[in-house]
Amino acid sequence: MANHSNHSHGHDEAHAHGSLKSYIIGFILSIILTIIPLVVVMNHMMDPIPTIFVIMITAILQFVVQLFFFMHVRERQGNQPRWNVMALIFGLAIVLVVVSGSIWIMTYNGVGY
């Protein structure tokens, strides 16, 4: 009887890691989100500023695809709260502050000299 409960627990963990369908969808989305900026840059389809925006937007979407389809951020294990989501949001906030602060300093460092 105890052996049966261990087997079902192992099955739940294997099922929680995602299905082949979700991996294929994530893989295809990743390829598409990689090809889009590559085509825009290689064919000089846009001016530099819009090209940078395309790269940034597809990079953010690629990040989201990686988190949800491969790292399973939205899944919870048992009755545990989603600490990994809260830690991720906190980490992203810190990165946003550091990057935006660095850009701000680099942009306005030479003003007034």
Describe the secondary-structure layout.
Elements: H1 2-16, H2 20-42, H3 48-70, H4 83-108
GO molecular function: cytochrome bo3 ubiquinol oxidase activity; proton transmembrane transporter activity
Transmembrane segments: 23-46, 52-73, 85-106
Keywords: Cell membrane, Electron transport, Membrane, Oxidoreductase, Transmembrane, Transmembrane helix, Transport
Number of helical segments?
Answer: 4
The profile of the biggest β sheet is: none
Using the alpha-carbon principal axes, give the shape.
Answer: flat
H/E series: HHHH
Instruction: Give the count of structural domains.
Output: 2
Separation of the first and last Cα atoms: 79 Å
Which spans of ≥5 residues are poorly predicted at pLDDT below 50?
5-15
Structural class: mainly alpha
Indicate the percent of residues in helices: over 70%
Number of strands: 0
Question: Taking Cα atoms only, what radius of gyration do you get, to the nearest Å?
Answer: 21 Å
Q: Residue-averaged pLDDT, rounded?
A: 80
Strand content: under 5%
Transmembrane segments: 23-46, 52-73, 85-106
Family: Belongs to the cytochrome c oxidase bacterial subunit 4 family.
Main location: membrane
Subcellular location: Cell membrane
Q: Could you characterize the architecture of this molecule?
A:
Helices cover 77% and strands 0% of the residues. The protein has two domains: 74 residues; 33 residues. With 113 residues, it is mainly α. α2 packs antiparallel against α3. It contains four helices and no strands.
